[in-house]
Design goal:
Alpha-Beta Plaits, globular, 8-stranded antiparallel β-sheet, 389 residues
Length: 389
């Protein structure tokens, strides 16, 4: 078996277009801190709709800081600078038969690793593989006063220390500038097949609940307008056994790959053919949610909801719906059902509002205290998550 160094060197050396701009970035943040001048952290802009507009004259451009600094397939880890395109990282991993198991969405061809981590989003495999946050082994960040800091490590066994690394995931740059991240990677499944069954929403939820109690190798689900699509992944035998047990139409490999990519990237017809007056909402709900309770709450707060206006994945835990109801009604629906809601349509909520669910008072206090500890002068992406932060 080759040594770790022998495995790590070839994959990383293929990407010679690297640039370490950490010193210049630290200097820019340091100068902004001294001048008390806020900065807007900029990547590709593929996920700007996930937060409020940042009012800042200065722009910290992360594109200049890119490259894979270390990749060890044997240790199942990779370290990459924030400005590296996510597509570039995925291509390198694919050459070694590996991937980011949570299959994070790009939402744009130039999506960067730093922006992906800052948004904290995960794709269709998330309930079975864990979230993007779960893949983070360590980070290098630039603090609000321009210092280069390192948290975590580069191997999975390194669990010592205060875990600020994962705190950066989903913070959208408000707590620190992600300059580099070390991620856990996984081997690609040996076999993969996707099936499609004709089922009502209630029937689909019932079956998904039952299948979740079995060893079926399900790694993605999607229900929309009377059709439930599932992905089975793993060893050849387990995938074959799952296919025989579940039945349904078997999708061709290209068709199956397109289904899950287009779901992840919001390119399915459901996401592209909305009415102009409707907003797209993402509802994260408990898996154990009763369908009758769901129907009653939807009927009371939103009125009748057509099957065509709903898409459900994550085995029922994530529901996408179109509605022209006011934001507070959609959020009340999510809250009543034990979840939360995020608006994915730019401009659908008031400019002073956030696309994110308002925080409960105690959580808002903790978030504000954390922001004040790590960025007391509001230098980094001020107001990006919420106006008061």
């Amino acid at each position: 078996m080759p040594s770790h160094a022998e495995c790590a060197t070839p994959a990383a050396s293929q990407h010679t277009q690297e640039q370490d701009a950490s010193e210049a970035l630290c200097e820019q943040v340091r100068a902004a801190h001294e001048a008390r001048r806020p900065l807007r952290i900029a990547g590709s802009g593929s996920k700007t709709f996930l937060g409020r507009n940042v009012e800042a004259e200065g722009v910290l451009d992360m594109h200049t800081h890119h490259g894979i600094t270390h990749y060890d397939p044997l240790e199942l880890m990779v370290s990459v600078r924030a400005g590296t395109p996510l597509a570039t990282l995925e291509a390198v991993l694919a050459e070694q038969g590996q991937h980011l198991s949570c299959e994070p969405p790009h939402f744009g061809p130039e999506a960067t690793v730093g922006g992906t981590l800052a948004s904290g989003l995960s794709g269709p495999r998330r309930p079975w593989s864990g979230s993007l946050r779960d893949l983070v082994l360590g980070t290098r960040i630039i603090s609000a006063d321009g210092k280069a800091l390192r948290f975590g490590g580069e191997v999975m066994k390194n669990v010592a220390g205060y875990d600020l690394s994962r705190l950066m995931c989903g913070a959208q740059g408000t707590l620190g500038v992600i300059s580099e991240v070390s991620l856990k990677v996984m081997p690609r499944p040996v076999a993969s097949e996707s099936l499609c069954l004709e089922l009502s929403f209630a029937e689909a939820l019932t079956r998904l609940d039952a299948w979740g109690r079995t060893p079926l190798p399900v790694t993605a689900t999607s229900w929309h307008d009377g059709r439930l699509t599932l992905r089975l992944e793993g060893g050849e035998r387990s995938v074959q056994a799952g296919r025989e047990q579940l039945g349904g139409e078997v999708l061709m490999p290209d068709q199956a790959s397109a289904q899950w990519t287009e779901l992840r990237e919001h390119r399915l017809p459901f996401f592209t053919a909305r009415a102009p007056h409707q907003a797209l909402w993402r509802l994260s709900l408990p898996l154990a949610l009763d369908h009758v309770e769901w129907q009653a709450a939807v009927s009371e707060l939103l009125g009748h909801l057509e099957d065509a206006d709903l898409l459900c994945d994550w085995a029922g835990a994530q529901r996408w719906l179109y509605s022209d109801a006011p934001a507070d009604r959609v959020r009340s629906l999510a809250s009543r059902l034990g979840g939360h809601a995020i608006c994915y349509t730019p401009g659908a909520v008031a400019a002073e509002d956030s696309p994110l669910m308002p925080l409960a008072a105690i959580n808002a206090r903790y978030h504000l205290q954390l922001k004040q500890q790590l960025d007391p002068h509001g230098i980094l992406n001020p107001g990006r998550l919420y106006a008061e932060m």
